[in-house]
Amino acid sequence: MSQNALSDIQQRNARVEADKAWETSWVRRTCIAIMTYIIAAFYMRYVGLNNALLGAFVPTGGYLLSTLSLPLAKTYWLNNIYKKQD
Question: What is the reported pTM?
């Protein structure tokens, strides 16, 4: 394998690792939660709901809870369902 090909593979692996780290990072989750809160609050205020700023915590909390449960679901899926497909 040529040095250029090896270098290309290493660069690709570094990009893939960085993408995976981003997908599971708390920074990403926090950014999405903040955006969810802002959008929900604006929407709730626009449609005239009372306590829009407080009510916007509901979808934001749901999102955060879902991200906490996904690692458990993934582990279960990998150990119990994915193996059966082999």
Answer: 0.73
Residues sharing a CB contact under 8 Å with residue 57, sequence separation 6 or more, in sequence order: 37
Angle between helices 57-76 and 26-46 (to 10 degrees): 140
Domains of the chain: total: 1
pLDDT greater than 70 at residue 32: yes
Using left for φ > 0, alpha for ψ between -120 and 50, and beta otherwise, residue 25 falls in: beta
DSSP readout, 7-48? HHHHHHHHHHHHHHHHHT-HHHHHHHHHHHHHHHHHHHHHTT
Range of the domain at 11: 3-85
